[in-house]
Amino acid sequence: MEFLELTSTAYHESGHAVMAFLQKVRIVKISIVPDERMGISGMLVKSNKILDSGDRETFLDRIESFILIAMSGMVAESILNAYNNYQGAEKDIEYIKELLQHLTYNQKEQDLYENLLWARTKNILQKSQNWDMIKKLALYLLHERKTLSGKEVMQFLRNINSDIDRKNISNIKDSLEKI
Length: 179
Known about the structure:
Blueprint: H1 3-22, E1 27-31, E2 43-46, H2 56-81, H3 90-100, H4 107-126, H5 128-143, E3 147-149, H6 150-178
Antiparallel strand pairs: 1-2, 1-3
Helix pairs in contact: 1-2, 1-5, 2-3, 2-4, 5-6
């Protein structure tokens, strides 16, 4: 796999991982090691448990979270490359369509809701703090370790968040001292 393709894969999988982190969905594993047998260039393995606690609103929110996670790989790649790349994301797209059927009543509503969720995914990932997490995780996957356990991913993202929080607190203190 050439470096540009591997970089796109790292950002794609990191996009999934960061959104799973933000949506509080358990990550099992992330990898940018291609698996020719499965026909994939990388993967995020996450909990597929969509809770049906009897509370319809919680169930629907959880489905929406899983859609955002599925969309986030392609969105992260599109932010990185400045174009949409659907090649290799067929399974994500199929999963998105399947889940959308649980949230909508007809095709027109499904199309509108899907467009809203694509925009929401892009807005979430473009926030500087979230994009910073994606970028750092992707670079770590590219240069340090191609595969991480879910615990390692969660610890890595928590550490990035605490660094960002410390910088934000420091910036706020600096601003207050200038007043």
